[in-house]
Amino acid sequence: MSTARTENPVILGLPSQNGQIRGSVKPAGGPGGGGGGPQLQPSSQIKASSTINNGSSQPMPTANTVIKPGDDWKKNLKIPPKDLRMKTSDVTATKGNEFEDYCLKRELLMGIFEMGWEKPSPIQEESIPIALSGRDILARAKNGTGKSGAYLIPLLERIDLKKDCIQALVIVPTRELALQVSQICIQVSKHMGGVKVMATTGGTNLRDDIMRLDETVHVVIATPGRILDLIKKGVAKVDQVQMIVLDEADKLLSQDFVQMMEEILSFLPKQRQILLYSATFPLSVQKFMVIFYEVTTSHLQKPYEINLMEELTLKGVTQYYAYVTERQKVHCLNTLFSRLQINQSIIFCNSSQRVELLAKKISQLGYSCFYIHAKMRQEHRNRVFHDFRNGLCRNLVCTDLFTRGIDIQAVNVVINFDFPKLGETYLHRIGRSGRFGHLGLAINLITYDDRFNLKGIEEQLGTEIKPIPGNIDKSLYVAEYHSESGEELKL
């Protein structure tokens, strides 16, 4: 099988720590890990906006289409091509509801359909009507099954454009997730006539955020430390917030963030709605619930509990392990690049130093790659995230910074170059492929020291990680081999 390779990889655009190591930007001529061009992503992929600056997101221009009474408003929508890839029951096992069943504003429905969201997923079916009723929610659902839409749709439905104040907060644990959620929110609300969305995260210019908040903002999507700082400074006025969302709630209620979350909640009005969403919990469910109620007893009003986690791993992700020594890992990775049909891949390491060393090694092998980790400057992290999401490179080497919530639908292969120690970390890593019920591949490079972790994670997650075969069936992870009817396509 031919593999696109590049010579003399170079650093582009930014100083040497920018995370972008690659050769030619021409699209690859065949399968494998090399090259990388703008055609890597499926048409249903969310396009990252170019309007993100210093953590703030300005609304995209609204459509100029005037809809008159009696018009067939759907015929004027710019709906992306139908996604014909096979989907698993993680997203298809629904009750048959339609978005129009929830009595949403027509302008919001227009944005939903133009995102390519055809029907609600199971978590959206369970969540949206309860959230619209004003009740608190504690929801548990798998990675990549539509949790962002489950809370953004009712959030946007309840925004009152006549009020020039912050009405909703979405708190997320990482900067990249904040930027991603803000982009989805901007796109879904683009027909609503002026919903103002702002992303604010640590590592960006505080003065820019202060100036932005001097103007009208309806929805703030933020990391905990930055929004708490803005609230304490009196810049972010949250006295009229009617809804707060904790995305990746298990992380936000962990020791890293729980004190900040309690402070943030203390500034909000007593009559507000709290929505919590998560795919994993740091301990057993029962133990987490105890911690959760201890933290939020004074804040929650009998939350409605949703649990769609009868099994933990995504049905569409096939998991393999390759037993290697530490010295064999790079050779094994090179072999995988040459044999797999990679659309985009994410390769995980356990430290920032190993991320940079591996990225350099991959470039020396002739493959294009980006890298990202928490010690990089925020402007470089933003650019890597934006460019990788837009398909400018096939491979991304990263730490666990990139494990939570990041939705890049073109990623069909995840490789654990370093095997994680915790089951929840493993679950979030492999959940970067197989997004929204599609197919993906997770390959784990296992050393002698990892053998007990492998067995422990299998038992903890109730899943099977199989030995890697000599040839991996492309129908397990390559979208072009499947249509919606399940028939194999001939390339």
From TrEMBL:
<dbReference type="GO" id="GO:0000932">
    <property type="term" value="C:P-body"/>
</dbReference>
<keyword id="KW-0963">Cytoplasm</keyword>
<dbReference type="InterPro" id="IPR014014">
    <property type="entry name" value="RNA_helicase_DEAD_Q_motif"/>
</dbReference>
<dbReference type="GO" id="GO:0009408">
    <property type="term" value="P:response to heat"/>
</dbReference>
<keyword id="KW-0347">Helicase</keyword>
<dbReference type="Pfam" id="PF00271">
    <property type="entry name" value="Helicase_C"/>
</dbReference>
<feature type="domain" description="Helicase ATP-binding">
    <location>
        <begin position="128"/>
        <end position="299"/>
    </location>
</feature>
<feature type="domain" description="DEAD-box RNA helicase Q">
    <location>
        <begin position="97"/>
        <end position="125"/>
    </location>
</feature>
<dbReference type="GO" id="GO:0003723">
    <property type="term" value="F:RNA binding"/>
</dbReference>
<keyword id="KW-0694">RNA-binding</keyword>
<dbReference type="GO" id="GO:0005524">
    <property type="term" value="F:ATP binding"/>
</dbReference>
<dbReference type="GO" id="GO:0003724">
    <property type="term" value="F:RNA helicase activity"/>
</dbReference>
<dbReference type="InterPro" id="IPR000629">
    <property type="entry name" value="RNA-helicase_DEAD-box_CS"/>
</dbReference>
<feature type="short sequence motif" description="Q motif">
    <location>
        <begin position="97"/>
        <end position="125"/>
    </location>
</feature>
<dbReference type="GO" id="GO:0034063">
    <property type="term" value="P:stress granule assembly"/>
</dbReference>
<dbReference type="GO" id="GO:0016787">
    <property type="term" value="F:hydrolase activity"/>
</dbReference>
<dbReference type="InterPro" id="IPR027417">
    <property type="entry name" value="P-loop_NTPase"/>
</dbReference>
<feature type="compositionally biased region" description="Basic and acidic residues">
    <location>
        <begin position="69"/>
        <end position="79"/>
    </location>
</feature>
<keyword id="KW-0378">Hydrolase</keyword>
<dbReference type="Pfam" id="PF00270">
    <property type="entry name" value="DEAD"/>
</dbReference>
<dbReference type="InterPro" id="IPR001650">
    <property type="entry name" value="Helicase_C-like"/>
</dbReference>
<feature type="compositionally biased region" description="Gly residues">
    <location>
        <begin position="29"/>
        <end position="38"/>
    </location>
</feature>
<feature type="domain" description="Helicase C-terminal">
    <location>
        <begin position="316"/>
        <end position="476"/>
    </location>
</feature>
<feature type="compositionally biased region" description="Polar residues">
    <location>
        <begin position="40"/>
        <end position="65"/>
    </location>
</feature>
<dbReference type="InterPro" id="IPR011545">
    <property type="entry name" value="DEAD/DEAH_box_helicase_dom"/>
</dbReference>
<dbReference type="InterPro" id="IPR014001">
    <property type="entry name" value="Helicase_ATP-bd"/>
</dbReference>
<keyword id="KW-0067">ATP-binding</keyword>
<feature type="region of interest" description="Disordered">
    <location>
        <begin position="1"/>
        <end position="79"/>
    </location>
</feature>
<protein>
    <recommendedName>
        <fullName>RNA helicase</fullName>
        <ecNumber>3.6.4.13</ecNumber>
    </recommendedName>
</protein>
<comment type="similarity">
    <text>Belongs to the DEAD box helicase family. DDX6/DHH1 subfamily.</text>
</comment>
<keyword id="KW-0547">Nucleotide-binding</keyword>
